[in-house]
Write a structure and sequence with these properties.
621 residues, mainly beta, 7-stranded antiparallel sheet, 3 helices
């Protein structure tokens, strides 16, 4: 029998059934399509062996006038500025106590109880202690005078932390009368909380049956940030807006914009901060309005937008001599997110999209409703790309390049039905310009952290899916490679993506692409596959040992489970694969050789071409 060429339709299509998508690809992991052909994605390596604490949710890169590169990193517990390989903690200080903290220790325990009236701290917050004297034994001044993470908060006046030493019977002192404390802003949560009451906050906060309002410290911690010239603005969603002065150095913490010299009616709370393009206004979305007493209300209005005077970070009072101002949106119930686009700022509520364009005095900005009915699923579910702005709503995927269009998506039902909608605010969009891709990372149905992704190639209009744990992404630009973040056990790493072919020095396993079912004569007769002629280009740095598997799965009816009928390895020297597979329907799967030796799995890169198979009819029973 003659060989038959199999070039499956590019992209993954899961909108129908395995059988209805004949001649197409049905499933994949860690695969992309380039010029219509599938290939393994690039690997990743640690950006640095240094680590940060807790889950990173936001990355922002910029350079100063001396071309020093910086990377802003917003995490659940802290905010860092990375310079070189160093993570510099610039988390703002929320409150300070002077000569007002005393300690109590228990013999044989490293738990220290601190008493500080109305400290305002919560579990997992950080406090830096100074001025303390020895408690008399192993809990010395050096042990006490450092940064600690708060372990528990028994009352509004006390909290505990775990010291770096264990107390003995001599530790009966209280630390003296000159103990100071610097409390960093309250930490946030790692997961989204949908309501108030028990569970709305850190574990154990409040009593059973009590009600607690949702705030920046009792909600998923998301950061927005932007550079204002050489300096950096940052905002924990639902919290204050903070300013880091680059000229002060990385050892100096960010401060609230209300504390800047000359600050006048700056917002005390916001949902997002952004600097407008060209005209350089600081814009706060979901800011607190100015009341009739000419003061900020200190309560976020989720539909309210406020902006500063042009190129003037401290000045926020609208006057006829400046360009500061505000506007309240009308369509929707809350601003979800915003992003800069070409000569405009796009703003999404939960049900609408607005365009915000600089027009100069007296109005400063023209704000127009672009679309009503399509919102955005999460604050970070949007990205601006060379081909337009892409975002995700609860109903699908969209694009804006002057007009809104819904993206036809061949995996839409699969993604939306697998989505943990309760953790939708963790969804974030990532750009990979080198490969013309936008990717949405999301929490699958049974996951509390982003563990799956869906990718759209905006030039070739193909979709792919897969599994990868990442919580933030930054495309190449200031830095040479895309950078992504992942945290495990509260220890966070940054990874350079599209770097080599491995998983940080280990083989990338579970790489595969699988076709839909194919048959002969609509399955009237059994088919027999006698041999396969692979067409594979090995592109990795693993040399001649690179190995993949060609797998043939079969079944006789669409309702049956697939059975693996043949698994054969393929290397750069493989000319043909002999098989004897018989069934009504067959599936071709190409996968990494996860059971092979480490040497055959490391450095694997491959691109598929036109696979040929000898397929013949083999009767009706």
């Amino acid at each position: 029998m003659p060989l038959e060429k199999f070039i499956f339709n590019p992209g993954i299509n899961k909108e129908g059934t395995d059988y209805s998508n004949e001649n197409g690809w049905f499933d994949s992991n860690l695969i992309r399509f380039r010029k219509g052909l599938p290939e393994k994605i690039g690997g990743w390596t640690k950006n640095t062996e240094n680590t940060f604490v807790s889950t990173c949710r936001a990355l922002h890169a910029w350079v100063d006038q001396q071309l020093t590169s910086y990377l802003g990193i917003g995490t659940t517990w802290k905010y860092y500025v990375k310079q070189g390989d160093n993570f510099n903690d610039i988390t703002p200080i929320r409150a300070t106590t002077t000569d007002g903290i005393v300690f109590a220790a228990t013999n044989g325990s490293s738990t220290i109880t601190a008493t500080d009236s109305s400290h305002g701290a919560q579990t997992n917050d950080f406090v830096t202690i100074s001025g303390a004297a020895s408690l008399g034994g192993l809990i010395t001044a050096a042990v006490l005078n450092q940064e600690y993470q708060i372990v528990s908060v028994p009352s509004v006046n006390t909290y505990t932390f775990t010291a770096t030493a264990t107390a003995n019977s001599s530790d009966s002192g209280n630390g003296g009368s000159g103990v100071d404390g610097a409390y960093q802003i309250n930490v946030g949560l790692d997961t989204y909380v949908q309501g108030s009451g028990w569970g709305a906050g850190t574990w154990g906060a409040g009593t059973f049956g009590s009600v607690s309002g949702i705030s920046a410290s009792s909600q998923l911690r998301l950061w927005s940030h932007d550079n204002f010239g050489e300096d950096l603005l940052m905002n924990p969603r639902g919290g204050g807006v903070f300013y880091w002065d680059e000229s002060s150095g990385a050892s100096v913490r960010a401060v609230n914009i209300t504390e800047l010299a000359g600050a006048n009616l700056a917002p005390t709370v916001a949902l997002q901060v952004l600097v407008s393009d060209i005209d350089r206004h600081i814009i706060c979305f979901g800011a607190d309005p100015i009341n009739s007493s000419n003061q900020r209300t200190s309560a976020s209005d989720p539909m309210f937008i406020a902006w500063s005077d042009q190129e003037n970070a401290p000045e926020w009072e609208p006057r006829n001599t400046n360009t500061a101002g505000s506007f309240r949106l009308s369509s929707g119930s809350a601003i979800v997110g915003a992003t800069r686009a070409r000569q405009e700022t796009l703003v999404w509520t939960d049900t609408a999209m607005y365009s915000m364009t600089f027009v100069g005095q007296p109005f400063t900005f023209s704000i127009n409703l672009v679309n009503e009915g399509v919102g955005m699923i999460s604050p970070n579910a949007v990205i601006n790309s060379p081909s337009g702005v892409f975002w995700m709503d609860k109903s699908g995927f969209y694009m804006y390049n002057g007009n809104i269009s819904e993206l036809p998506c061949s995996v839409q039902d699969y993604v939306l039905s697998d989505l943990n909608i309760g953790q939708a605010y963790q969804i974030f969009c990532a750009l990979n310009k080198e490969f013309d891709e936008v990717t949405w990372f999301y929490c699958s149905k049974n996951s509390l952290f982003p563990d799956k992704y869906v990718t759209y190639n905006y030039l070739e209009t193909f979709w792919t899916i897969g599994e990868l744990n990442r919580t933030a992404w930054l495309d190449q630009g200031v830095f040479n490679s895309p950078i992504a973040a992942y945290t495990t056990s509260d220890v966070g790493y940054l990874y350079d993506h599209e770097s080599g072919n491995n998983d940080d020095g280990s083989p990338m396993d579970n790489v595969f692409i699988e076709s839909s079912d194919f048959d002969i004569g609509d399955g009237e007769a059994f088919l027999m596959i006698k041999r396969i002629i692979p067409d594979v280009k090995f592109t990795g740095d693993g040399g001649s040992g690179q190995t993949i598997n060609f797998v043939v799965k079969t079944r006789n009816y669409p309702g049956e489970n697939l059975t693996t009928s043949a698994t054969n390895t393929c290397t750069s020297t493989t000319t043909k694969i002999d098989t004897r597979v018989r069934a009504r329907q067959a599936v071709l799967r190409i996968e990494s050789d996860d059971d092979g030796s480490t040497s055959s799995r490391k450095g694997l890169g491959f691109r598929l071409g036109a696979t040929r198979m000898e397929v013949m009819s083999s009767g009706r029973r």
